[in-house]
Amino acid sequence: MQKGPPPRKAKKPHMKIGFVSLGCPKNQLDTEVMLHELLAAGYEVTPEETEADIIIINTCAFIESAKQEAIDNILDIAWLKQNHTLKGIVVTGCLAERYRDELMREMPEIDAALGVGSIHAIVAAVEAVAAGKKFSEFAPADEVRLGGDRVLTTPEYMAYLKIAEGCDNRCAYCAIPSIRGRFRSRPMEDIVAEAKEMEALGVRELVLVAQDTTRYGLDLYGEYRLAALLRAITDATEIPWIRLLYCYPDKVTDELIAEIRDNDRVLKYIDLPVQHCTDRMLTAMNRHGDRAMLDSVIEKLRRAVPEIVIRTTFIVGFPGETEADFEALCEFVREKKFAHAGAFPYSREEGTPAYDFDDQIDEQVKLDRADLLMRIQQGVVDEYLAGKVGQVLRVLVEDFDPVSEAHYGRSAADAPEIDGKVFFVSPVRIAPGSFVDVEITEVQDYDLVGKAIIPKK
Fold this sequence. Notes:
Elements: E1 16-21, H1 25-40, E2 44-45, E3 54-59, H2 64-83, E4 88-93, H3 94-98, H4 103-106, E5 112-114, H5 122-130, E6 135-137, E7 158-162, E8 164-165, H6 176-180, E9 184-185, H7 188-200, E10 205-209, H8 218-221, H9 226-236, E11 241-244, H10 254-262, E12 266-271, H11 279-284, H12 291-304, E13 309-316, H13 323-336, E14 340-345, H14 363-386, E15 392-401, E16 406-411, E17 422-425, E18 435-444, E19 447-453
Parallel strand pairs: 1-2, 1-3, 3-4, 4-5, 5-6, 7-10, 10-11, 11-12, 12-13, 13-14, 17-19
Antiparallel strand pairs: 8-9, 15-16, 15-18, 16-17, 18-19
Helix pairs in contact: 7-9, 9-10, 13-14
């Protein structure tokens, strides 16, 4: 684990590698592994696409918009092959895995493709492309080596830590199990060792990720072990903030809730994808549990941890969703008052059970429902954030904006990249990665504004 390049072999002559990493933090971790392997092999990595000899595009293909973003990036980079000095394009990740038979045939701009099980073949792919050869490899997704050295691409004060790979939930709308393979947990001792390495690099916030973090340990130990993993990390390190993403409601155990409540360094924050709230929609989606389970889990979390911040996501316009189902979802959002929520129109994905379902919903209806649900959520957020005015929040400082002459960062209630920020003025400059108390004075959209409280010397 490292911030900078590893000890290198002799540099490859005149060979610079560029990277484009798309999609979720789990994909970003794969990018970090490939970065390390290329640097260790002696290649130079450049952030400037116009300087690169070969560009690697690590793609997402979860829903239609992610696929289109990946294709747009490939075509944009292909312009550099035609009009600049770029010699080759390597496409990795979920798009390559999902469309392995079509990708290079339909997009001749691509010189090499690697599936998600072949990220460790990145050096071989680059060497082949550098020699003017086409290259592809698609090892079984669920046999890829988990963990391993990587170069952190996040700010030095925070990092993602992947605790498992793959998924066994098989929701009716989701292509991830067919792309990423079966669920596999990493051994606890490997995760703890990596957490210690990140602490040594100065990481102050550790964000645990997997396709389903709450399933952690079931395949290795015969039981859910996320709570035990949290204890092990906090026993072995002094990292002050540990955050949980991608927790499935049906696997949030009483033991996990107690760990969130009692462990001072586990943030009182949980990402809890709900997707819908009516029994008929949850059943159609092949989600585990029903409305009563959702109500129970949310109530347990809030009773045990009154200050808990819950982030969630919803899918609207799933096949068969009636106006009554949607209205029930709107009322659910009004009632539960989630601090953070996203609403997404259902994306019809080939290869998933829901692709062939009857009663597909019109695209405009899906968009209208997503828009309405987010307008309802905006009202919830406005009320939630207004309640923060006058409070003093602990903020992890991210940077200073010279234009507004204000620092910005995040409170424990805000996950990196997906939630809001706290902007604040300070009489002294504060280094990124520091913690500071901020008195909140106003709200601006999804963000808070305040002033730093600097102790007098």
